[in-house]
């Protein structure tokens, strides 16, 4: 199976604080990989390294078979066209309407000029996330769950091959969390995208994850399917499932 | 993120970071895909929406300068010099500096807070990761809009100050409009106007640059948004005074030596 992300021995420090100590991760095409871990174990740093937002200190990080640190500016840009990133707070452009939020990457990244094409692509993703009625709303007028959906729509509008989810259900109630988790699964089926899902939410991990990885101290502690890890005898792994 | 360092290293790091930001501005200013629409939007926000405060400031400045100078000029029998004195001092020095400081307070703080808030809420990273160019969209447009609009606002404020000066003179000593403006404007020379306009271009650039730099480098947390706005005002105000001192020295050596 084609590996879209390959990470080996990744290290990243901020000042004296070593965040990633020996991170290893592999994601296959079309697969949802869930990354679990306590706060501060380097989950978000890992996906920011994958997106090229942070530069690792050591180790190998290949996306679509190409080493990220060896990419020049144009190659990095081209790689980012194929990657979507759903931020924890959705990171919607708050001075723009939902319509403008969706048009922004279409105009600048895909260089689309035809208003009708922009409109139809925007509506397609809004319908996919169930937000077609909110097209003229401002982000401030959306609820937490709607903001996440909208963030996902903006991520999907460029039809990415990999989606990086940074705690997609954090701050949401149980019902909305489940809805978002099912939406992630639906998007995987509909768009055939691979995904790295960072979460603390075990329900989300169970619903969305083809494979689950547990991080501890900046490295991979255990990896397997949800059921395999649930049946692990390791007390640390067990602590996530209790 | 900056590693733990000595104060000297931190200063060097800070200077290097600003130099890199400046280089990034110039590199992106000439890149393909210039954001004209955003430039016009920012020019409208920065220029048009500052007209009120600039009009009021300029107008009052002219009145106050006239009323403050009148008793002394009367003492020396030099009341007829009022129009020339007001016009030269407003256009050469007081107008550009006061308006730049007002703009630093209004515009640099607003840019610092807006970009700082976008930074904290990961909107800038979201732009970057989508493959769009946040420097070209957010920084280049704001700095260029400030560089163009601050000189225009200053020229407008100077005109308001002359009108304010005229009204104060008219009410105090009954000078006619024709005499006031002919005396006030004929005294002006090329060497009064040109350095003043040039320095306002630098002031505008400084306001935009400092606002954008502080916003772009705001740390995480809501407190850093306030800090970015605050330090944008303080730093740009200090730089305005320093630039003013340098331009005065240069223009003196060029025109009056």
What does this protein look like?
The complex is a heterodimer of chains A (242) and B (257). Chain A has 242 residues and is α/β, with parallel strands linked by helices. Chain A has a domain at 3-90 and 161-241: 3-Layer(aba) Sandwich (Rossmann fold), CATH 3.40.50.300. Chain A has helices spanning 43-50, 73-81, 98-108, 115-128, 144-156, 174-191, 202-208, 226-230, 235-241, and strands at 3-14, 17-28, 32-37, 58-63, 66-67, 83-86, 162-166, 194-198, 211-216, 219-224. In chain A, helix 4 (115-128) crosses helix 5 (144-156). The longest helix of chain A is centred in the C-terminal third of the chain and has 18 residues, at 174-191. The two termini of chain A are 33 Å apart. By secondary structure, chain B is mostly helical. Chain B has one domain. Helix content of chain B is 84%, strand content 0%. Chain B is built from 9 helices and no strands. Chain B has helices at 7-29, 36-46, 51-75, 82-120, 123-129, 134-173, 177-186, 190-216, 223-256. In chain B, helix 1 (7-29) crosses helix 6, helix 4 packs antiparallel against helix 6 and helix 6 crosses helix 8 (190-216). Chain B starts with 6 loop residues before the first helix and ends with a helix. The model of chain B has no long low-confidence stretch (mean pLDDT 93). Chains A and B meet through helix 2, strand 6 and helix 3 of A and helix 5 of B.
């Amino acid at each position: 199976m084609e590996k879209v992300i390959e990470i080996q021995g990744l290290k990243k420090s901020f000042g004296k604080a070593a965040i990633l100590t020996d991170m290893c991760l592999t994601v296959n095409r079309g697969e949802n990989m869930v990354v679990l871990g306590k706060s501060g174990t380097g989950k978000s740093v890992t996906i920011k390294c994958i997106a090229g937002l942070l530069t690792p200190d050591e180790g190998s990080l290949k996306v679509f078979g190409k080493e990220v640190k060896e990419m020049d500016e144009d190659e990095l840009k081209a790689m980012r066209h194929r990657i979507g990133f759903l931020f924890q707070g959705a990171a919607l452009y708050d001075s723009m309407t939902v319509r403008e939020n969706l048009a922004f990457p279409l105009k600048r990244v895909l260089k689309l000029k035809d208003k009708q094409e922009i409109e139809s692509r925007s509506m397609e993703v809004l319908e996919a996330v169930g937000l077609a009625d909110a097209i003229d709303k401002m982000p401030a007028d959306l609820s937490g769950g709607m903001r996440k959906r909208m963030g996902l729509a903006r991520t999907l509008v460029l039809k990415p091959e990999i989606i990086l989810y940074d705690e997609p259900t954090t701050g949401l109630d149980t019902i909305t969390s489940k809805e978002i988790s099912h939406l992630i699964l639906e998007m995987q089926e509909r768009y055939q995208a691979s995904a790295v899902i960072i979460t603390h939410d075990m329900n989300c991990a169970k619903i969305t994850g083809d494979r689950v990885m547990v991080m501890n101290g900046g490295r991979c502690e255990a990896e397997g399917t949800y059921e395999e890890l649930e049946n692990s005898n390791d007390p640390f792994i067990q602590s996530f499932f209790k | 993120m900056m590693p733990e360092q000595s104060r000297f290293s931190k200063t060097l790091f800070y200077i290097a970071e600003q130099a890199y930001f400046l280089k990034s501005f110039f590199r992106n200013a000439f890149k393909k895909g210039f954001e004209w629409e955003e430039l016009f939007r920012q020019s409208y926000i920065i220029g048009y929406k500052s007209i009120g405060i600039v009009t009021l400031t300029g107008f009052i400045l002219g009145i106050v300068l006239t009323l403050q100078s009148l008793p002394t000029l009367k003492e020396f029998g030099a009341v007829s010099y009022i129009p020339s004195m007001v016009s030269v001092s407003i256009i050469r020095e007081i107008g550009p500096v006061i308006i730049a400081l007002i703009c630093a307070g209004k515009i640099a703080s607003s840019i610092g807070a807006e970009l700082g808030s976008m930074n904290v809420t990961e909107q800038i990273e979201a732009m970057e990761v989508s493959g769009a160019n946040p420097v070209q969209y957010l920084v280049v447009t704001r700095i260029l809009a400030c560089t163009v609009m601050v000189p225009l606002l200053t020229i407008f404020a100077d005109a308001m100050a002359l009108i304010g000066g005229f009204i104060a003179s008219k009410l105090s000593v009954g000078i006619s409009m024709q005499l006031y403006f002919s005396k006030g404007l004929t005294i002006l020379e090329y060497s009064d106007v040109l350095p003043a306009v040039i320095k306002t271009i630098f002031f505008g650039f400084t306001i935009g640059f400092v606002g954008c730099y502080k916003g772009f480098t705001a740390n995480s947390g809501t407190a850093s948004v306030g800090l970015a706005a605050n330090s944008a005002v303080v730093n740009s105000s200090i730089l305005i005074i320093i630039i003013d001192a340098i331009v005065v020295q240069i223009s003196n050596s060029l025109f009056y030596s």
